[in-house]
Amino acid sequence: MSKSMLMVMTSHELMGDTGKKTGMWLEEFASPYYAFKDAGYSITLASPMGGQVPIDPNSLEDDAMTDDAIRYTKDELARSAMAATIPLEDVRAEEFDAVFYPGGHGPLWDLSDNAHSIKLIEDIIASGKPVGAVCHAPIVLKDVKAADGELLVKGKSVTGFTNSEEDAMGLTDIVPYLVEDELVKSGGKFEKADNFAVKVCTDGLLVTGQNPPSSRPAADALIALLN
User: What CATH number is associated with residue 206?
Assistant: First the structure.
């Protein structure tokens, strides 16, 4: 039986009130997507509003275009799926073997406090199935509770986009949340590598990656949990 993977992405495309565009970071979708696809998984894409997921224009610049990102631009099937994601409220945890959240700055706005997302993760974890998130997407974990009522990340090794990485982007005062601060506040044991170096934490059913280069390694870690 092929495994069924749900990927949940942002619908948010504006960087605060800067007038600049944001959204999902392409590498953080493309690398995991092809890791799952090449492993033979069936993949379903969802977002808070459904429909087209906004892609951060900075992630389409030449220096951000990894092999997987280039593969995506030539993949009509993947691009069609990205344009027609299902609304998050229509997703049922029992239909999937795992869920993965790609980052980009968008999730800081529309997935950080999303009740449908929180319930989805709680249901997936309660079913003994794993959850992965990379870069800014681990923000989705901040209010998720475990079956015992404690915050899910409490006492767990986690990572995500660091305060120093956000500072390097010059966005510390623009974003609504700092991933590192929020995960620490929720009781997580936050681990980090140098800025933009690969870092993945696996703790129980939780897989988190620090930044875009950690996307494929985080996906591989999630696959390892499913095998």
Answer: 3.40.50.880
